Amino acid sequence: MRMKRAGILFRVVAASLALGAIATRASAEDDLKLAVGARGNWETAAAELGRDAGFFAKRGLALDILYTQGSGETQQAVISGSVDIGIGLGTTSVMAAFLKGAPLRVIANASTGSSEFWYVPAASPIHSMKDAGGRTIAYSTAGSSSHIEVLGFIKEYGISAKPVATGGTAATFTQVMSGQVDIGWSSPPFGIEAARAGKIRIIARGNELPHFREQTIRLIVANGGWLAANRDVAARFIQAYRDTLEWMYADPAALEAYAKFSGAPVAIAKQVRDEFYPKNGLTVDRISGLDSVMADGVANRYLAAPLTQEQLRALFQVPAPVK
Question: Which of 12, 18, 61, 164 has its CA 20 to 30 A from that of 2?
Fold first, then answer.
């Protein structure tokens, strides 16, 4: 009887020690709060896919992800300090907020070059942006990359069109299909299935505008106060993000994980990755075309003047790779 009790006691102690070890490992992880725009996009999927695949845990990080309606909402969450890091913020908007004293610091590229496209219902007489004179053209929110691109289309093709803020991709689709807006905007994978089914026609892509192809148009941004106190955490986060992106472009299992995450078939997931998101466009260390970004910001009155080199050095603080 005593041996039986001793055995039970041993198992209880062993279980307690095991639970204690798990708790110790969990408490050793640094908690990170993220705001991420456009849930389901390949461009912003690395945080969740990498978390689920263990890349962030490997770096001692536990991610708490908040999905937002887009860049503006994400930016406000970072400025307020309700999250530590935001993913997918428009470059021009970040620069404008920084110049006004917002506590924002850039820690990585989220997207260089544009993945957005513009579309019309299948029966529309519009076949290209050159036909858009007198029409309404959708973008997400003021200062977003889609907004700057719409203004770029108007300038490039010399058309008199009206830009309209329509919010997220789903809300935009409803407005286009109900006739409230003539030309909608989207970001893959949303809209690809509708295009394949012949419900809509894609008439333009952001990368048609030559100078947008080399512009870093969206960013990964940290709250400045948080970053000053947590540089090691930020460096490990960006390294885990690098590792996740390598996996996303190399392993078929990553495509399957993304398809499940986005709700898209694997074939569409592959099309989205290969056709709309070239790997070098998402490379976190690639920051390019800032002079062009600032020139557009000034021309469109989002920036009073280009940032100085000193201001750019203060704003852009991309961590070096971590072994």
Answer: 18
